[in-house]
Design brief:
Length: 91
Amino acid sequence: MTKKATNKVKVVMAHLHSRIARLAKGAIERGDITSCDRISDSSYLIKRIDKTERPQTTKYTTVAAASLLHLLNSYAKANPPSETIAETETV
């Protein structure tokens, strides 16, 4: 791999890591995940609460973590939380 190609890979990975950080912050705020920790340049530990309310920690590659968080973000945008009756009555 040439030096130019190596630098391009580093830039792409830096972008992925910053994107994961932003997506993870949003997912934590929405309650989709409880934590997202980078354990190396190529993997993340993401802790989620499953349907039985038990925490589930899974190790993901960088690309898989970015994909999972992107899908969670897309789902949240497509399915916003519904308004409660109290909110609609005060308007």
